[in-house]
Amino acid sequence: MISTYLKPLDEVDAARADHLAFVDELEKTGYAVTAGRMDPPTGGIILLDVDTEAEAHEVMATDPYVVRGLASYAATGWHPTRGVLAGYQRAR
User: Where is the YCII-related domain (predicted)?
Assistant: First the structure.
């Protein structure tokens, strides 16, 4: 999922602790493979382990950034075939 911030960075950062707690939970449940903020900070990327685009949107619907209207997410499908994630196995 690729996010785009919809509000000024100071408003996004005011909700960042809640967003990071949400991402922590995604990691614990095996949904988030990796995540990080873009540079410059205009959004972020969360690599999800899901089966469908609909599931990805469902998972991200409760992100505090989405709930508070601070960011939107676009899904991009991807199957790693090279590098450190080649042969990735689902954790859950």
Answer: 7-75
